[in-house]
Amino acid sequence: MESKIKDFMNKVKIRNGHEPEFLQAVLEVAETVIPYIITKDIYFGKNILLRMVEPERAITFRVPWVDDKGVVQVNRGYRIQMNSAIGPYKGGLRFHPTVNMSILKFLAFEQVFKNSLTTLPMGGGKGGADFDPKRKSDNEIMRFCQSFMSELYRHIGQNTDIPAGDIGVGGREIGFLYGVYKKLRNEFTGVLTGKGMSWGGSLIRPEATGYGTVYFAESMLNTNKDTVKGKTILVSGSGNVAQFATEKATQLGGKVVTMSDSSGYIFDPAGFDVDKLAFIMELKNIRRGRISEYIEKYPSAKFVKGQTPWSEKCDMALPCATQNELNEDDAKTLISNGCICVSEGANMPSTHGAIANFHKAKILFAPGKASNAGGVATSGLEMSQNSLRLNWTREEVDNKLKQIMADIHDSCIKYGKDENGYIDYVKGANIAGFVKVADAMLAQGVV
Length: 447
Ligand code: NDP
Prior knowledge:
Layout: H1 2-16, H2 20-38, H3 48-52, E1 57-66, E2 72-83, E3 89-95, H4 101-117, E4 124-129, H5 138-152, E5 161-164, H6 171-185, H7 205-222, E6 232-236, H8 240-251, E7 255-261, E8 264-267, H9 274-286, H10 294-297, E9 302-305, E10 316-319, H11 328-336, E11 341-343, H12 352-360, E12 364-366, H13 368-371, H14 374-388, H15 394-416, H16 425-443
Parallel strand pairs: 3-4, 3-5, 6-7, 6-10, 10-11, 11-12
Antiparallel strand pairs: 1-2, 2-4, 7-8, 8-9
Helix pairs in contact: 1-2, 2-4, 2-16, 4-16, 5-6, 7-8, 7-14, 7-15, 8-9, 11-12, 14-15, 15-16
This protein binds NADPH dihydro-nicotinamide-adenine-dinucleotide phosphate.
């Protein structure tokens, strides 16, 4: 088996050798899906996984814009249309200086499996730009978004490709992007998700990724007759996903003691209550400040510069910042400190070595493609509401989100439970996500 996985990875490396994040995401899938394919005649010999690692289309484009000083700046824009076997491409846009082909292809590849798991008819895609929104004025952000969309609009549409937010792309950016799309196409459609409530957005969409990550953790804990209540929890990040993971974990009776940004982490042993979280939301979303400013307001907390939070003692960890933010040593530290459950809010935050250690220690571990799928699932619900031309209530959307997360959890058990009862959620998510897409691809022929 190992040689088959190695042969496959060698083929992928020949074409993508300079894309480490993409290779990491493919390896994680190959290790669990290839042993499954070999046991199934319908997939065997069809090179189905080799087809899935090749984007259907990858677009790059120039994004020129003028900054507040009148200087012309140039960024690179991307859209990876990875797989449309089960529905139109769907996946976020990331604006961050580290954005490149490798990162977007890993995200698009993960998105194919994640979207399949949601039970909704959505293919996978991802896009963005190597643009840094930090310290830019609202006008600069608007001009950048306008230039970006003046090319992207040709490649997307409500039945073709429906982008959403990701790192660096929140409600403000989606608004600017939507405005240009509407002007160029002269149509009001659900072409983007994460829209404002007065112009086609869905209740619960901002909360969905973070809430879903915690709902998934609760389902995992329930398999051991345990619950989030009373748990001490480490959260990384302080953006959209981290904020709402913290909110839901706190509502369920957990105590979140850390949050972070790229400058370091804060540790508040008393936990973030409603007021403290409201302060963080205002700090990050309105004032666009740094997480270290928290200790000026709450001096009993500490700020640890340049570090991730994984050395603090906890029962649970929710990595919600970015890829590869939790390495093998961090995993060992978490396990020896008593951590029993890790639910990924971010995409691929745990390295390959970290995941191996979680599995070795037999703790509960959910990969992002399962545990953070609530965001795109609720984007799917936003698309449904746009097509129906109506809005569901907060309660209706939240109930649908809970049901989808429970269904994803069931799918992981179906394909991931071993003979001793341990649930390998990575294996479960990969195979469940694969089967639906692979079956559709087989039915549609070699295209
Ligand atoms: P935001 O931009 O709202 O927040 C990102 C957070 O992560 C910020 O606190 C940011 O800190 C921190 N961060 C970003 N890059 C780094 C880095 N290199 N090192 C340390 N910290 C970093 O993004 P989201 O909350 O939307 O996304 C977070 C993660 O969740 C990403 O992996 C994303 O792909 C994933 N995700 C998001 C979904 C969504 O609905 N938004 C859906 C599914 C997954 P700083 O401000 O200093 O940059």
